[in-house]
Amino acid sequence: MGQGTIGFAKSGLQRVHDVLARHVDTGKVPGLVALFSRGEETHVEVLGTMRHDGGAPICRDTIFRMASTSKPVTVAAAMVLLDECRLRLDDPVQEWLPELADRQVLKRIDGPIDDTVPARRPITVRDVLTSTFGLGMDMTSIGTPIMDAVFEKGITPNLPVPMPEPDEWMRRLGELPLMHQPGERWQYQIASDLLGVLVARVTGHSFGEFLRERILDPLGMKDTGFYVPADQIHRLPPLYAPDPQTGTFHVWDEAAGGRHSAPPAFEGGGGGLNSTVDDYHAYFRMLLNGGMHRGERILSRAAVELMTTNRLTPNQQSARQEMAVNNVHISFGQGQHGGWGLGMAVRTYRGDYAPIGQFGWDGGSGASSYADPVNNVTGILVTQVGASVPDPVRLMHDFWTTLYQAFED
Description:
The structure is a single chain. About 30% of the residues lie in helices and about 15% in strands. By secondary structure, the chain is α+β, with helices and mostly antiparallel strands. A hairpin with a 2-residue loop joins strand 2 and strand 3. The protein is globular, with a radius of gyration of 20 Å.
């Protein structure tokens, strides 16, 4: 897909290093790893320590919680099923997810959850893939009865109760009305978790098993998974959620004994993966190569094109854009890309230094992963500071701003 062959300028590389080092030197970001490539040229920056108070240094193979950057990887498992005609885009999902048959839809987004009308049509595979099936994390609707019910039932990760195993999760999801008619509005998060359940139901394997067999192992992503084995847990730093008012470091998730130290009850396609920069680089380079990895086909070119180009209608896209623009003060500027493909953002207008066509996503744990077919560029940035404060997001912005000035040409 990418055509660029010219690499990076030496002065540009030095500037990338200096900007990243500046963030670590403040003490607000204890450590980071950044891997970026253009064509065959790859560079890695490794800075700082595993813990905010010092200790072991971060390494290139340090494992990080990928949070919402899990979404672009999750969708690949579903695309395998589309390639093999085991799923079709406009199949109703109720064949595999009967809990979602005969949906009711809220009359008003802020109304009682029993004030509903029947859904105009069944939920389809396309609706789930494009995050338009009718339920999601809507930050503009916090405090409404439906969002309160989503949190209370443990439908979303860690808020405020643990997610149950998949069948129970589906039962609880089936108790809720939809927020919008199927296909009407793009919404965040829940569709990506639902996609993992759909893949498991279609294949008869756990989502993690199928993802490993068809995507992770063929790409050599040996350090990617939904938990970190005990003999590798030393490679996982704690995840910090600094206090938004004081900046004081608080451990949100410790490594040993934490949320990612054992197989989870729910393998969350929306944000459950752990990985390394090299593993994620292999995945995004595969996408740039049209589904090929070292001479082997992982996904069809058509599947990759569906994933990495805008799939939203003008009405769906305007809803996504409105949410991004109106929440810039909450998201610290994340999310203003315009479009959405399958499991990832796609830039449909030039809103910053990245060109139209760049695809990827960011994660609330301090992860950012994008590929750019215009310049044949891939970039992965990870740290261990969550987005309770703006510091990790500002680091992401500065990384991409500086990287786009580092080209040889």
